[in-house]
Amino acid sequence: MIIIRQPDRQSSQPLYQQIADDIEQRISNGEFTPGSLLPSERKLAERLGVNRSTVILAYSELRALGIIESRTGSGTRVAKFKWGATPKHTPNWHRYVEGGSFLPNLSFLRRVREALQKDNQLIDFASSELGTDISPVDEMNTLIDENHYTDYLGYDNPQGFAPLREALVTHLHQYRGIRATASSILITSGSQQSLYLITQCLLAPGDAVAIEDPSYCYSLPMFQSAGLRLFRLPVDEKGVRPEDVRELYKKHRIKMIFINPNYQNPTGTVLNDGRRAELLNVASELGLPIVEDDPFSLTGYDGAIPMPLKSTDPIGSVLYIGSFSKIAAPGLRVGWMVAPHSVVERLADARQQMDFGLSVVPQKLAAQFLNSHYFQPHLDRLRMHLIYKRDLLIASLQQELSELISFSVPQGGLHLWCKIIPKVSDTKLLEEAIRNGVIFIPGSVYGSESGYVRFTYAKPKAEDIAAGISRFASSLRAVLGLT
C-alpha cells in the first residue's frame, strides 16, 4: 500500500502543498516507481482526513509539473515519460519560491495589489501616491520638451547624477534647513531602496532595531528578511517617547532607530519639539544612529513646515532619507540619503553591485525640476489640493460614520488614520469593501490590532471621495451586521 505522510495542520504551508511535496519527494527518491498507481482522490482524502478538494489541488500541482498523469478509466499514475536511463525532473519551482531568504509582501498588501490590478474602477484609498490631478505632469512635460536628454547615456557616478546632488544641496538647505555636500548625498530609487541598503549593509542578522508602533516599517518584510529583531516605540499624539528608546537599549541593546517624525505614516502625527531634542540627546548619549525617513514634511498645510531632526543634529547621528514620490512624481523613482561620506561610499558600492547605478534621465529631470521656477508653485498647489481632499474625506466620514469611527485631523501628509470603534475583522472588512468597489489599507499592516484603517486621500479624484466613503460605510455596516 502506498504510504503518504499526514499533513501538518499547524504549518503555515497549505495542506495541498504539503501533500504534493511529499508525493513529489517520494517519486524523486524512487519510492513510487514510474507508472505506479496512486490512490484515487477520494481514497487519499479519506486516508489523510482532508477534503477531497485538497487532494484535487495537490494532484493538479503534480500534473502541472509533469510528475503524474491521469486518464479516465486508468486512474492517476506516476508519469512514465520522465523516467529512463537518465531521469529528467522539472524543477519544483514552488520550493524555490518558498525557500528564498527575501520574504514576500504581507498578505494584505498582496491582496490590495491583486484587487487593484483586476479592477481599475475601484476607488483607491490604498495607494500611497499622488493622483494624476495633483502631480506636476504638465511641468514635467514642459521640462522634457525644453531640454535635451540625448547625451551619452553611459554608467554614471554610483553616488548618483552629480547635478542632481548639487541641486539637492541647495534644496535641502533652503527647504529643510539641512547643510549637506554633494559627497554626503546618495541618490536612490526611493525611500524603500534607502532602507534596504541600510538594513543590508549597516546591520547584521540578529541585530535589534527600534521602529515606531504603528509604523510603515512594519509593513516592509525587508527588516525580517535581513534577520533583524524589531522592537516597538509606541506613537502617541506627540510622537514617540525618547525614554522608550533608553529602555529598549537597556533591555535589547538596540543598534539603530527608524523614525518618521513629520506627518508619520500611518498616524499623521508630528514629533513634539521637546521630544525631538530629547531623542537626539538620548541617541548621542547611547551612540545610536537614527534613520529619519522624511517624505511628507513639505506637504505641511499651514505653512509652518516642521523641520527634520537632521537640521538640528549637532554630531551626525541622523541618516536622512527623502524622496520625490510623495511631493512630485513617484514614477521618477528618485530618492536620496544624506549620510557621512564613509556610509555613502559603502552604500553606493553595494547599490552598484545591484544595478550599476540609476537611470540618468529621471535624475536629470528631477534636478531640473528642483532648479526650475515650477517647484514652489507646485508645492503651493499640492498643499491646497491635499487640504481640499482631506476635508472632503473628513466631511464624508462624519456624515456616514460619525458614531462608528474616530480619528485625529492631520496637518500634513497624505493619510488619515482611523479607529473603528466596534470590534471588526480586518479581513472581512477589506473583502466586503473590495466587493463594494472601494479599497483601503487595514491598520494591522502597520502593526496595529485589527480595527484600524489608513485612508490615503491623495490618490482618488476629489469627486470620488464621497462615493468611496459611502461604499466603505456600507461595507462596514454589513460586516458589523448593522444593515
Integer average pLDDT:
91
Instruction: Give me the number of helical elements.
Output: 16
- Provide the low-confidence segments as ranges: none
Structural category: alpha/beta
Strand order of the largest sheet: 4-11-10-9-8-5-6-7
What is the alpha-carbon Rg in Å? 26 Å
Largest beta-sheet characterization:
8 strands, mixed
Strand proportion: 5-15%
Give the distance, in angstroms, between the N- and C-terminal Cα atoms.
55 Å
- Let me know the number of strands: 16
Globally, the shape reads: globular
What is the percent of helical residues? 40-55%
State the main characteristics:
483 residues; alpha/beta; 16 strands
Can you give me a brief rundown of this structure?
This protein is of the alpha/beta class and 483 residues long.
Written account of the structure:
There is one protein chain. This protein has 483 residues and is of the alpha/beta class. The chain contains 16 helices and 16 strands. It has helices at 15-28, 41-48, 52-64, 93-99, 107-118, 137-146, 162-176, 191-201, 222-225, 242-252, 273-286, 341-355, 360-371, 375-401, 426-435, 462-480, and strands at 68-71, 75-78, 123-124, 185-188, 208-213, 229-236, 239-240, 256-259, 290-293, 318-323, 335-338, 405-407, 415-420, 438-439, 441-442, 452-456. The radius of gyration is 26 Å and the shape is globular.
